[in-house]
Task: structure prediction
Amino acid sequence: MAPTLQDVSYLLGLPLAGVPIGPVDAPKNWAQEMAQRFYGIREGAPEFTYENHGPKFDWLQNYQIQRFGYPDVLMTAPQITRSLEAYLLWLLGKVMFTENHVSTISARYIHYAREIAEATCQNDITQWSWGSAVLAATYRGMCTGCTLTKEKSALLGCPLLLQLWLWERFPIGRPEVAKNQACRFAGEQVTRCYPAFSEQFDTLKDESVIWEPYTTAEAFARYPGGLSIMCRRDEDYWLTKSKIIFDCQVEEMSQQRVMRQFGLLQMVDPPSPEAPLSSDVHIRRSAPSSTASTASLRGGGPAASLHAGSPATSLHAGAHPACGPDTAERLTARDTHCTYPPRASSTDLTAGDTESTTPRPGWRLGVAAAAGDTESTTPRPGWRLGVAAAAGDTESTTPRPGWRIGVAASAAV
Result:
């Protein structure tokens, strides 16, 4: 099991479609410009303090709306803008993309915070793929965390996403909420719990795992008023095969290993990624120091495929599929269940091969051929994972047992 883009949509409500967030650079002369922007915004605020990494976190806290006397005192437009910028820096640096720097927040996020805070209309804000960036940063944080040995090592990325994901799916490590005490946890403090948690995971049974926590019935039971539209707006991308990136961190999407989380059949031997990452791209931790190298990541280096002209375009096309330009690689609404096995465009089932049970390229999950259409490569709705047609029932949309991934219906079924 693993957190996926579906979890990001439901738990954080972040957009998936949009411009990739990477490489991320700090603005030139950011310290001087920031000191000028915040000068005189709040009376009595301390002098701007910072380090090479970014502004001091304690200094940013001086611009919380409560420090301005809100709601008893109305705030001016400049005060609201700068307070929002400070809040967004905290959100990006301390929640969505955590780092080991405790006392500062990275200056790399200033550009994004300013763009949102200073926008006067929706068109002033670039549609960034925040959801895929958070998941990429979390994947990299978990990968790196497995190799850390120091006592004060921390998990980077978005620990909030990981905590919420664990809460929704596993009956382990959930603090008991005290009844009749709002927002209070009851029971013993969870300290030095690693051995206990490891033992509980080792003995965890299949039926104890919540494989699909986002069903319609479950959502209605917990939120009768309805979920935010952002929870399902980008569902076409949940099973994308695109790479996801944050800064210079490139991560593989391997939903073929966790198909059961989507209510689909899990293969015993999942297929390998169609375009696996090279080791030099996967281990990259930060942007190159030279301008030429940084430019190569944007347009001509190992990660260039993530920005244009590749399957990654389906995720980072710059707009939501309902309102943005369509691309050949974009997933369609009915194609969300057909990521694996991969389809070969040049090969398909041959005519008269309806009795074959040998896996052949060409068929995709969630699609089927119409009657007499055994040579067609055109997706057709009706078939679902784990069902098959009876003899002569090639047009049927009724689920029937026996159908297997990547194989044709047998006349004897």
Remarks:
- The first helix runs from residue 5 to 12.
- The beta strands are 176-177, 185-186, 244-246, 249-251.
